[in-house]
Amino acid sequence: MSTTLKAKFDTRREAEMTVERLVQEQGIERTDIFITTDGADNSVGDEKAGSDTEGKDPTPESRDDAALEGKIVVSVDIADDARAAEVKAAFKEFDASDIQG
Which of 14, 42, 59, 86 has the maximal Cβ count within 10 Å? Predict the structure, then answer.
């Protein structure tokens, strides 16, 4: 029986790190992982992180146009319910909120 697990992340970086953990260490296929926004607008999350933050010298002038329009949602389809705990652990490792499934 297939199960879908979902979680929300404050930053795009946290969502991306979670996906890499699931793919590289848990062997989940990328085609079973979906990333979207928590709403209709384009968003990089609620907080700046990674390339959305100011860099060290020498860099171009800092930008202030990150699309902070809502959380990032990661959902994972798994066929084996026993793997749910592993997926939820990865969500928690990268500070997910509102974990469902």
Answer: 14
